[in-house]
Design goal:
single chain, 335 residues, mainly alpha
Length: 335
């Protein structure tokens, strides 16, 4: 009786066993999920370069090693120096905030609102809180340095195999979506559009705007340009907000302090270069007509930051856009 019962439901036992193994496997990998996803995204971006290299060098292992070295030189090392300068500059900015003459801005705000707003007190409080947050962040960073080194190792190690076994990974993913050839092509085309729109249309274009904005802040003598330029990158990713949130107040502050050359110069540079470059960059970077809804970008950026950390700026919008694609494809039967 018992034997026949287990025999009858044997196929469900196998399914249950599979689900348990899958759950445990995901739990094991959960701590490194952001590193694995980051590796997959970077490998996807540089995979065309890998394919070109693989035509000249037949060994995929050697090509993957060369690509790891290339990515390290192009992304990881520059990022290390940028974050190093960013922390130093931020510390100097918060410590030197007391030397900034805020009287013109305070008088302007008081005359504008006619309620005696003391801007100086607010700015000092914000600066003090910001400096405390910076020191805590720096302390947490050094305390978690062994973990971050491990995450970097996992990222590079995963990236190597994404390059080396990219075709196998793609075949495995296709196995999860057993579709007719025509529908599979439609799905992959839409998937590529979303990847391009997220990585190039949102992230890369924001970085370009941030870099151009940083150059403008340096040219027109704005203090701590790396700090404000980094904030510009995040602002550029948010619809409606944009980089003007940084360069416009900086220009006004210059004008209020009587620095007409740098103030007007930054205004003109911000309007003609920083704010308009997006209209030229995105059409060149995005292939096809892919668009990501502004709400998905906002929720993705801030939700991704909360869940995955800094890499979540990229992962968040990407995942939400992929969720929308799956909904359209399977629920609405995308054609």
């Amino acid at each position: 009786m018992e034997a026949s019962f287990f025999h009858k439901y044997a196929k469900y036992n196998i399914l249950l066993f599979f689900l348990i193994i899958l759950a445990v496997s995901l739990y094991i990998m959960f701590s490194f999920i952001s590193a694995i996803i980051a590796a997959a995204i970077v490998a996807y971006v540089f995979y065309p370069m890998f394919k070109v290299l693989n035509k000249r060098i037949k060994s995929k292992a050697i090509c993957a090693g060369i690509m790891i070295l290339t990515v390290t030189l192009i992304i990881i090392i520059p990022l290390f120096f940028v974050f190093n300068v960013l922390f130093i500059e931020a510390a100097n900015f918060y410590q030197g905030i007391g030397d900034i003459d805020l009287a013109p801005l305070s008088n302007f705000m008081s005359n504008l609102f006619d309620n005696g707003i003391n801007v100086e007190v607010y700015v000092r409080d914000i600066a003090s809180s910001g400096f405390s947050f910076l020191m805590k962040t720096l302390s947490d960073f050094f305390l978690s340095l062994p973990q971050k080194i491990l995450m970097l190792f996992i990222t590079i190690f995963s990236m190597y195999y994404f390059f080396k076994d990219g075709d196998k990974v793609l075949g495995l993913l296709k196995g999860f979506f057993p579709l007719h050839r025509a529908r599979a092509k439609v799905f992959l085309d839409e998937f590529n559009k979303i990847i391009n729109a997220t990585i190039y249309g949102v992230f890369v274009s924001a970085v370009i705007q941030g870099i151009l904005g940083t150059f403008g802040l340096i040219i027109f003598d704005v203090s701590s340009p790396i700090v404000w330029g980094s904030i510009m990158v995040l602002a550029a990713m948010i619809p409606i907000v944009g980089t003007w949130l940084i360069w416009f107040p900086a220009a006004i502050f210059k004008l209020l302090n009587g620095d007409l050359f740098n103030g007007f110069g930054l205004l003109i540079y911000g309007i003609l270069i920083v704010s308009t470059i997006d209209n030229f960059v995105k059409p060149k970077l995005i292939s096809g007509k892919a668009k990501i809804h502004p709400l998905l970008i906002v929720l993705g950026v801030f939700g991704g930051l909360k869940v995955f950390g800094i890499i979540g700026i990229l992962i968040g919008p990407l995942f939400l856009s992929m969720m929308l694609l799956l909904y359209k494809f399977y629920v609405k039967k995308l054609k």
